[in-house]
């Protein structure tokens, strides 16, 4: 079983200019992200446009992600985003059969189940496979609130529930409360584009799951924190957060600009996002160019 920690970016959905899935480009992008410092790859995260994919495209991407991560000797995390328990269990078995190292579970949010219904859904998913699991807690994106007690009870019931991705706003107090109640072998990662990754590190998080375009920046910040250089880490994180504060005003906006960065860095051939999506204007772009110019000086060469 591979340990999951450090920089675990969300793999982008890579398309040709006409919106068709580019599997070769996807694999090449993942190779490039790992070369830039990604320590795992995460497929079907919210920033990965999973909600714009057909079922056959999802399966194709699962196979490609497992293959490229196996070749690069890094873990691959595949998110289960299905809303019904029956469909989620079916997908869980497909993810386990694919050879993925961990399944991330995004709780169903269309009708926002809560209480016993939500617990039963997550409980049955944990029971359906033997592979390591991670639960994603993203109430700002999903509108689904999960009490700390629900996650800790699930962790006590299921030894394979090893990881938790926490991206509520603010995440700090929730991370503290959760970490104090979890069994000692369970781990917490932070999401939300890594906006609070330094605070998360100080509260015991073992990794961060940001967007895909700048794994080298996140890795440099993370390595500084681990080596005892909080001043250097904070200085670089401030530059990164200046850009994130602009481009992460909503999910489609950050996907749009992350793909522009990926294309500029030679990691994808097309910055196409499937419609409907974010439409930039001259002011958005002008601010982006200024802030991108500040952080791009810190990029590592491929």
Percentage of residues in DSSP E strands: 5-15%
The helix-strand sequence is: EHEHEHEHEHHEHEHEHHHH
- Main beta sheet: 8 strands, parallel
Percent helix, as a range, is 40-55%
Helices and strands: which structural class?
alpha/beta
N-to-C span = 29 Å
Q: What's the helix count? A: 12
Number of strands: 8
pLDDT under 50 segments (min length 5)? none
**Physical arrangement of strands within the biggest beta sheet:** 1-8-7-6-5-4-3-2
Q: Please, what is the average pLDDT? A: 96
- Rg measurement, Å: 18 Å
Q: Please state the overall shape, judged from the principal axes of the Cα atoms.
A: globular
Protein described:
The structure is a single chain. Helix 4 links the parallel strand 4 (102-105) and strand 5. The chain is α/β, with parallel strands linked by helices and 302 residues long. It has an 8-stranded parallel β-sheet. It has 12 helices and 8 strands. The protein is 49% helix and 10% strand. It has helices at 23-35, 55-72, 85-98, 115-128, 139-142, 148-157, 172-181, 197-202, 215-226, 230-247, 251-264, 282-296; strands at residues 6-7, 41-43, 76-80, 102-105, 133-137, 161-166, 187-190, 207-208. The two termini are 29 Å apart.
Quick structural gist:
The protein is α/β, with parallel strands linked by helices and about 300 residues long.
List the helices and strands and how they pair.
Layout: E1 6-7, H1 23-35, E2 41-43, H2 55-72, E3 76-80, H3 85-98, E4 102-105, H4 115-128, E5 133-137, H5 139-142, H6 148-157, E6 161-166, H7 172-181, E7 187-190, H8 197-202, E8 207-208, H9 215-226, H10 230-247, H11 251-264, H12 282-296
Parallel strand pairs: 1-8, 2-3, 3-4, 4-5, 5-6, 6-7, 7-8
Helix pairs in contact: 1-2, 3-4, 6-7, 9-10, 10-12
């Amino acid at each position: 079983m591979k340990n999951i920690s450090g920089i675990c970016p969300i793999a982008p959905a890579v398309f040709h200019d006409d919106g068709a899935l580019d599997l070769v480009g996807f694999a090449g992008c993942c190779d490039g992200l790992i070369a830039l410092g990604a320590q795992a790859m995460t497929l079907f995260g919210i920033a990965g446009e999973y909600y714009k994919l057909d079922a056959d495209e999802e399966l194709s991407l699962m196979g490609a992600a497992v293959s490229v991560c196996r070749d690069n000797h890094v873990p691959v995390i595949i998110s289960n985003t299905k809303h019904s328990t029956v469909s989620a269990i079916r997908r869980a078995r497909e993810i386990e059969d694919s050879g993925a190292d961990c399944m991330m579970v995004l709780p169903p949010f269309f009708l926002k189940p809560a209480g016993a219904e939500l617990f039963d859904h997550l409980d049955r998913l944990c029971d359906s496979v033997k592979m390591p699991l991670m639960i994603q807690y993203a109430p700002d994106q999903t509108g689904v609130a999960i009490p700390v007690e629900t996650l800790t009870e699930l962790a006590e019931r299921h030894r394979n529930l090893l990881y938790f991705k926490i991206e509520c706003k603010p995440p700090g107090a929730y991370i503290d409360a959760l970490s104090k109640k979890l069994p000692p072998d369970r781990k917490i990662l932070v999401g939300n584009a890594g906006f609070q990754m330094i605070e998360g590190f100080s509260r015991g998080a073992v990794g961060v799951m940001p967007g895909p375009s700048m794994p080298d920046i996140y890795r440099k910040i993370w390595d500084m924190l681990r080596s005892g250089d909080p001043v250097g880490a904070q200085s670089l994180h401030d530059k990164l957060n200046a850009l994130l504060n602009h481009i992460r005003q909503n999910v489609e906006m950050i996907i749009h600009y992350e793909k522009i960065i990926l294309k500029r860095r030679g990691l994808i051939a097309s910055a196409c996002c499937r419609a409907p999506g974010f439409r930039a204007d001259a002011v958005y772009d002008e601010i982006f160019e200024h802030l991108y110019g500040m952080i791009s000086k810190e990029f590592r060469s491929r």
